[in-house]
Amino acid sequence: MIVKQIWTANAYRNFNYLIACGETGDALAIDPLDHEKCLRAAKGEGWTITQILNTHEHRDHTGGNEAMVRATGAKILAHRNAGDKIDDMARGLGAGDVVKVGRTVELEVLDTPGHTMCHVCLLAHTEAPALFCGDTLFNAGAGNCHNGGHPAELYKTFSEQLARLPAATRIYPGHDYIENNLRFTLDREPDNASARAMLGRLAGQDPGRAYVSTLEVEREVNTFFRLTSPTVIAKLREAFPDLPEEPDPRTVFVKLRELRNTW
Ligand SMILES: [Zn+2]
To answer: Quick one: pLDDT band at residue 263, thresholds 50, 70, 90?
Structure first.
């Protein structure tokens, strides 16, 4: 499996992806908003884009579909309930489905509601596993829930699916938000030395050659995986004085998501 992360350099800071089979040159384009950059990258590698995968229905993820289909004839894949939101879907996906690319690549579909209720992530069970997570999980952050999402559902996705993936899983999100997210982590948890060191290292990084984290790293620097940290809970109580003595992780997650909206 060959992964190419494509930095769009747009205002929304989108990352697009190409996933290719090294044997056949077939490629899957994930959320190819910048269809021109994606097509150029595929051409440069000698790849043929045969499938488009939309992680979810938001326009900054689907906006390149039409031009991409026109240029390549690729089939559009997305969550099985997204048919009324995404035009010309050829295949609806559910949990456990497998997306094949060429002869050598197999990606497992995870049904990951929360950012929207029609969101899928793709998981590659390669030696170093890889997760293409759209707007569900970001480096050091979590997707927002104000355009068709639900924080409690997002919590469930984090705790029951993402948190259980192998520690070495490489994280490929839909946007480059790492710098802002690390600042939020440090606002919530000023004693988080890993987040502080990472911000020092990555502030002002070139997103065209972005750092790729792992789930193990996310557990250290992502507030939304750190729901039992005493500092996170104590700081959260400053904003929400009614927070119980030992709040359940779901409550902490939902309150953190609420704070992040105002931040
Ligand atoms: Zn979105």
So the answer is: confident
Q: What is the pLDDT of residue 202?
A: 94
Distances from the Cα of 246 to the Cα of 151, 184, 234, angstroms: 20, 22, 10
How many angstroms separate the alpha carbon of residue 115 from the centre of ligand 1? 7
pLDDT for 169-220, tens place per residue? 999 999 999 999 999 999 999 999 999 999 999 998 999 999 999 999 999 9
Judge contact between 13 and 177, C-beta under 8 A.
Answer: yes
Q: Exposure string (b/e) for 39-52, b if CB count within 10 Å is 16 or more?
A: bebbeeeebbbbbb
pTM of the predicted model over 0.90: yes
Give the angle 237-249-190 at the CA atoms, nearest 5°: 50
Rounded alpha-carbon distances, angstroms, from residue 84 to 49, 79, 87, 115, 217: 24, 11, 7, 18, 37
**Which amino acid belongs to residue 132?**
F
Question: Mind telling me the catalytic residues?
Answer: 56, 58, 60-61, 115, 135, 175
Neighbours of ion ligand 1 (CB under 5 A): 58, 135
